[in-house]
Specification:
- The chain contains 6 helices and no strands.
- The protein is mainly α and 94 residues long.
- The chain folds into 2 domains: 30 residues; 62 residues, Orthogonal Bundle (Arc Repressor Mutant, subunit A), CATH 1.10.10.
- Helix 1 packs across helix 2 and helix 3 packs across helix 6.
- The longest helix has 19 residues.
- The protein is elongated.
- This is HTH araC/xylS-type domain-containing protein.
- Keywords: DNA-binding, Transcription, Transcription regulation.
- Pfam families: HTH_18.
- It comes from Paenibacillus etheri.
- One of its GO terms (molecular function) is sequence-specific DNA binding.
Length: 94
């Protein structure tokens, strides 16, 4: 099982208030914390799609999405194609 870190945990770990952490995070990354997490989750999903033969439901859960349909929607929004098409692009025919 994957443990997920929260914004409050990060703020506490860095000894900042949540509000100050949010402001600095946005200044440094150019995006808000939920957007950043979404990008990181999809980045991990891309890796899993290429490197494993795990089913879509398994990958969506591993990267933090309980709803596979929502995972597919976010993936398509950020990557521009469905997870299935993404995986298919990297299949090597022997």
């Amino acid at each position: 099982m994957i443990d997920y870190i929260t914004l409050v945990q990060l703020a506490t770990e860095t000894r900042m208030s949540s509000r100050h952490f949010i402001r600095l995070f946005r200044q440094q990354s150019g995006m808000n914390f939920p957007e950043y997490l979404q990008h990181k989750r999809i980045e991990l999903a891309c890796h899993l799609l290429i490197e494993t033969d795990n089913k879509m439901a398994s990958i969506s859960k591993k990267v933090g999405y309980q709803d596979t349909a929502h995972f597919r929607e976010v993936f398509r929004k950020l990557i521009g194609i469905s997870p299935s098409k993404y995986r298919h692009m990297f299949l090597i025919v022997v």
